[in-house]
Amino acid sequence: MSGAHGEHGSARRFPPGFLWGAATAAYQVEGAVHEDGRGGSIWDTFSRTPGAVLHGDTGDVGTDHYHRVVEDVALMADLGLSAYRFSVAWPRVQPTGRGPANPAGLDFYRRLVDLLRDRGIAPLVTLYHWDLPQPLQDAGGWAERDTAWRFADYAGLVADALGDRVHLWTTLNEPWCSAYLGYASGEHAPGVQDPAQALAAVHTLNLAHGLGTRAVRAAAGDDATVSLTLNLQVNRAASDRPEDVAARDRLDRVANEVFLGPLLDGAYPEGVVAETARYSDWSFVRDGDLDLIRTRLDALGVNYYTTSLVGAVAGDAGDGALAPSASPDAADRPPADLADVTWHDRPGPRTAMGWLVEPAGLTDLLLDLHRRYPDLPLYVLENGAAYPDEVGPDGQVHDPDRVAYLHDHVEAVGRALDSGADVRGYTAWTLMDNFEWAFGYERRFGLVHVDRTTMARTVKDSGRWYRRLATTGVLPPVEGR
What we know:
- One of its GO terms (cellular component) is cytosol.
- Its EC number is 3.2.1.21.
- 37% of the residues lie in helices and 14% in strands.
- The protein has a single domain (19-472), classed as Glycosidases (TIM Barrel, Alpha-Beta Barrel).
- The chain is globular and about 60 Å long.
- By secondary structure, it is α/β, with parallel strands linked by helices.
- The strands form three sheets. Strands 1-2-3-4-5-7-10-11 form an eight-stranded parallel barrel, surrounded by five helices. It has a three-stranded mixed β-sheet with strand order 6-8-9.
- The protein contains 16 helices and 13 strands.
């Protein structure tokens, strides 16, 4: 258990063996989209759709990680990382999403895992971080249940290649985003705006996790540690009025419980089918599906960035309710009418994404999961902030806001540990500035700055701060506080 700050300001110390990592995703960093047999993905297609991505940016080059992997792993070692979370590009392994593996694709990930292990860095492998092979989308994508079986085949190929050299397997990253941003709001690939398809995608993704987990264990052994990574929302009611509390609860069901329920409890949350009946009759759920979805989960990955303040829609708000607003917090939400909620703005510091900085929400989330699933180890697999930092005249990147953000959120993890939560690692998002999905290269989350012309890497002040944390396990102070 980590030690709290003492009366005289003694630093918080984290447990021995606690993993300190950084995270990336294949499409955001690898580049080399036409090399060594890689097929096209939904993000290759989406990023070429006029108006879909800021400035028309694509992941064609990313940070050129595919060609600079030796340099990048050396950089990770210099930062003192004990873990690196990366994703495997499905179309690099299976160019069409079907059939045998592409040997060159698997060789890249074998090499990456070997490089990491040689440096004492634990590989944390995410099998799916949003780059569905385009031919599978042409056949229906995540709204088509057969995609779950295609994912299981792919997962087995990767697990067979990497075997027991992976510290932690994650089947899916943020299925919420894949379903709701991909198929409801259309803000992410494949850009579909159809709530019925979004709900079907939720179920197919859940099936993919269950089937993929079994495939990993069949190929890599039953001792393989398999997780799922969820961006669970921390939603707070705008008031204690019953209407606002009910709206918060509806949002929790459609955003969080549609994943936690079948994965960990073997059932979809009561009420969610009726609440979304205007979009779907949920006939995509077939006999035996819930048994396929619910399988042993060795750990749960938690991605956290902000909280939301929500209430009843305007017509149900009544006297005394907060006025609705176009809150930036709603930017990465599904269409509000999926849960009949309104988002409300709040004062406080915000990141370049417009997200409120609220570290206490991370503590609350970890403790809520610990109370519900006390035997389930937790990993914070994404947490970080975008700020408009630049290389200064001194050749350095001074990003005090990010340093403060990381400090306060790592402290929030420590507070959860103090209260008994079984948290075993923290991976900052992200290792280096990269392709930030629909925001292109404009939004920078990295511990390391990447020059878009030369691809030169420059460790930011936040990266140096994080090095102190990763190498000592002691939370460094924030200058000026």
